[in-house]
Write a structure and sequence with these properties.
By secondary structure, the protein is α/β, with parallel strands linked by helices. It contains 29 helices and ten strands. The chain has three domains: 231 residues, no CATH class; 215 residues, no CATH class; 161 residues, no CATH class. The two termini are 65 Å apart.
Length: 629
Amino acid sequence: MKSETLTVQQVFQDRRQYCVPFYQRAYVWTLRNQWTALWEDIHEKALARVQGMAITPHFLGAVVLEPQVKEGLMGVDTLHIIDGQQRLTTLQYILGSLYLALESTGLCEFQPALLGCMQNSNEGTMRNPVVERFKLWPTFRDEQHYVRSLAAQSLDELRKAFPDSFTQHGSLRVHHAHPPSLEALWFFTRTFVKWIRSDNASPQRNAEALIMAVLKDLKLVSICLEAEDDAQVIFETLNGRGAELHATDLIRNYIFMRAEHDGVNAMALYEEQWKGFEDSYWSERQRRGRLSKPRMEWLIHATLQVEMGCEIDLSRLYNEYRRYVATTSPSPKADQQVMALNRYAIHYKALIKASSTSPIGRLAQRIAAYDVTTLHPLALLISVSDNADAEKTAMYDDLVSYVVRRAICGLTPKNYNNVFMNALRHLSKTCISAQELRNNLNALGGEASRWPSDAEFFNACTCGSLFPGRLDAPRMRSLLTELEGALRRTVKCEEPVSPDLSSLDIDHLMPQSWFTHWPLPGGTMVTDTEVTAVDELLLMGAALSPVQVQIGQRNKAIATLGNLTLLNLSVNRSVQHYDFARKQDELIAHTSLRLNVPLISKDGWDEVQIAERSEHLGQLALQVWAKKG
């Protein structure tokens, strides 16, 4: 490689064009993070020139350029910007702003000094004058607003080019999303005009000092690669350890820089296979625990776990991706890598959106409340397999059963990453089938991993404190929603598929504050103080009176499955502490759920009725979350 130190004027003076490779990210520098500091550097040099002080250059950093082979005499010399596109693009915005500032202050005689650094001349010898006349050509994401901004010959033309960004009085709208090129030109132009009109010297002297500060006093280290230099290695060295780029930026560059070596048409690959990943859906951040990453990173993370059958270090995602390509035999070419990502992306979207009717979409709906993202790689392995939908559904049913049974039985999810990764490895080495997955889950032992038996699960459903207790509100609501769906399938229901019940409230048929309107068996009324005293006595292991035993039994029954249902929020709030007769009237008027319909004919509601309903729903739960041998 060859390196040299150049002024801004030297960088842009030759008949050449700096091209941002189409696969690189868009322009991201902003007023807050970069432009203000850059103006301060320019201002320092301009002021020194006005005051006749000695000038020392200000270094903006390095740019790495890869010259492209020019065929024939037509066209300008082209260099791809491997690193430094943000700097070079900003310098074009600064030059454009200087041009507009000179027009605004009536100092147009200085404009020719700038034009040679903004535009290539002799359009008659260009292949595509519309593009090649610009000294820098951005990535396609910035292309439209870049051209409109730099084509403006005055601030009035700039306003006309972006009418939605300006008020009727001609000022830039506040709290409005503007194209970055417009924001840059607006900031620098107004700043330059203010400087030119300042009182420290004549406008002509200020303008000349400002132009010289930009063209002569700002310098860059220009590094030009030669044929034997590896552009990707250099790009990684400059950016791989920094926080500025996402792992997906590095991976994208890696794929497309390698495309040519693989004999793949990079532009066609980008347009036909990769461009969909530039959608905002994939850059949207997703939070998992304490980590917040772009959705694309989570996709690649899951894909690598499926492909490699091992845990992947998210903090080293780019290096892990390189390892995947290097260790896979045969090593996948650029187009094969992108095709694989697209293949997984279809299934990953269904898994995240939890709205499709595909097997993996239905799985996502059923486990959404349980926050088991460690299941994603295994779910993807099953979804991309060649199995029929019925086989995939059977596998997902077992996984849901495993997760739900453990939650209801109060067993920890902390070992799920190992459980599901081991299952993924097992299926990858043997056969991706329902029986193989079932065998793997049935073989698990110990509190951290086992799949609860029917007896344990049924006992937890009928006797366990579920809500409040082992399940939070989203999980309890999900549980009751699935039971509602199962109940509908047992009758000739007008709406056999459960509607969206996520807005309903979880109701305790016998309320948690039952002592106000609900006497004990035999008619005894108790107070809140007496109920609290029983809880304390139970904690101490003290002996209880017969009434206290009844209080303890009732308190235990409140949170069990048989006493829980779903109700319209306003209905629940209006009757939640009242007696059963009042609740029953509201049920008759406002409910159509199969969970609630049998309650309408009840004569009363007590611990016996709760136990009977728990038994009924527990038997149903054994079918919904079945465990097969």
